Amino acid sequence: MVNAAHAAAPQEAGMTLDIKGLSHAFALGDNRLPVLDRVDLKLAAGESVGLLGPSGCGKSTLLRLVAGLEALQSGGLLADGTAIEGPHHSRVLVFQDPTLYPWRNVWDNVALGLQARGQLKEHRHRVDETLRKVGLLEFRDAYPRQLSGGMAQRAALARALINEPRLLLLDEPLGKLDSLTRIAMQSELIRLWQQQEYSSLLVTHDVEEALLLCDRVLVFSARPARVLAELKVERPYPRRRDDPRLLELRHHALELLGQGRDW
């Protein structure tokens, strides 16, 4: 007789993602604006991949498709081998703006996901646990207007993490922070990713940030986006900004983005 506790293998913390020949376009009146052109991407469970490319090339659209916020038009899009057909709490998108509800304090903002799924009464202890992970427990009663930019982004991360995502989608989450706060938050993102073991897709315009945070970095062309190159970082964490290999990859990425002559 099989022991019930071992009847099924435990689910991996991270989610696999398989994108095949993904193309997408927006309708503009009678015209169509192509934004993605036959994009292929494989993400292993627990892997972190960065997406670099010119502004408006389609990176954020790709995240929205993976999150299930846009309907698939062409190609394949599988999470753990199953077609993505809509949003799910296992795939969470964190935006550049924290988008916290101003009338709810930090605790209530973070609790929103549990509340929406009717799980808050049973799991309310997880709100404080998640706030502790991001260093905001003492600000649980504060309102968004009382938070710094970095603290607000930590609250947004906590709101995502309380859903225990297996795939975290990050759309320039540090783009509006000052340089010192951004450096601190980069370390925080690495710590949380290593602790939680989720898979991650990070959209950023900061080449150094992508190389510091991710296992691999995909460089996209101008719209409609197609993959120009895949850069394998293969350096241990924590990484140093002056690591010769990272500097080499940074220069290569900037060359692909048409900025190599300036560096």
Features:
263 residues, six-stranded mixed sheet, 32% helix, Rossmann fold, single chain, alpha/beta
Beta fraction: 15-25%
Level of helix content?
A: 25-40%
Largest sheet geometry: 6 strands, mixed
> Helix and strand succession?
EEEHEEEHHHHHEHEHEEH
Architecture per CATH nomenclature, i.e. the level-2 architecture of the domain at 16-100 and 166-262: 3-Layer(aba) Sandwich
| Alpha-carbon distance between the two ends | 65 Å
Question: Could you give a quick summary of the protein structure above?
Answer:
With 263 residues, the chain is of the alpha/beta class. Helix content is 32%, strand content 24%.
Question: Describe it for me?
Answer:
It is a single chain. The protein is 32% helix and 24% strand. The chain has 263 residues and is of the alpha/beta class. It has a domain at 16-100 and 166-262: 3-Layer(aba) Sandwich (Rossmann fold). Strands 6-7-8-3-9-10 form a six-stranded mixed beta sheet, with helices on both faces. A four-stranded antiparallel beta sheet has the order 2-1-4-5, covered by helices on one side. The longest helix has 18 residues, at 179-196. The radius of gyration is 19 Å and the shape is globular.
